[in-house]
Amino acid sequence: MNLTAALLSLVAKLMSGCSVRWVDCQPETCQRIYFANHTSHLDALVLWASLPRNVRQLTRPVAARDYWEKNAFRRYVASSLNALLIDRENIKVHRSPVELMLAAIGDTYSLIVFPEGSRGVGDEMGEFKSGLYYLSKRRPDLELVPVYIDNLNRVLPRGEFLPVPLLSSITIGPPMWLEAGEGKADFLKRARDAVRQLKEI
């Protein structure tokens, strides 16, 4: 891991005051899809920084190209995190976000994704989009690990540039998989519920 990535990890931890709990799940280097609620532009960075170093090296956050390519600093941060930037505006059928993610992970990397697609408002989670379902359908071997991120929306409120030092927490739950014959709607509801339930732990 390069020096910039290590420094970003340290700054993210200090800035967010983030505590991490692993519930019926261990920090392993096997291929996974970490899927989380989305309330702040800091979500990807702080979740990535909260993983152990050996896991971080093999984990790529998925983030919006239009936000992370807006200026040189953001591009530098995204590059340091080895983030996979997805174009939300100009989606091509032969280069869909799911295809890009599958190509990016190969047989080595894990991903951090936010199935709501965009940041929610307040504590209520939005509906999950279908990408997580199609990822798991194409790669049923991948562990799908739910994550609940709490209070980061107050560390960096919507519309603000400078973070406010506050304590936040990340709860990482037990892996799940797409079940045989499970439909898209049922799977996405089960995945969303898996994230929401971590809030109560």
Keywords:
single chain, 201 residues, alpha/beta, Glycerol-3-phosphate (1)-acyltransferase, 7-stranded mixed beta sheet, 9 helices, 7 strands, 18% strand, globular
Q: What does the model show?
A:
This protein is of the alpha/beta class. The protein has a single domain (3-198), classed as Glycerol-3-phosphate (1)-acyltransferase. Helices cover 37% and strands 18% of the residues. The chain is globular. The mean pLDDT is 85.
Give me a quick take on this structure.
This protein has 201 residues and is an alpha/beta fold. It contains nine helices and seven strands, in the order αββααβααβαβαβαβα.
Radius of gyration: 16 Å
Mean pLDDT: 85
Give the second-level CATH assignment, the architecture.
3-Layer(aba) Sandwich
The SSE order reads HEEHHEHHEHEHEHEH
Adjacency order of strands in the biggest sheet: 1-7-6-2-5-3-4
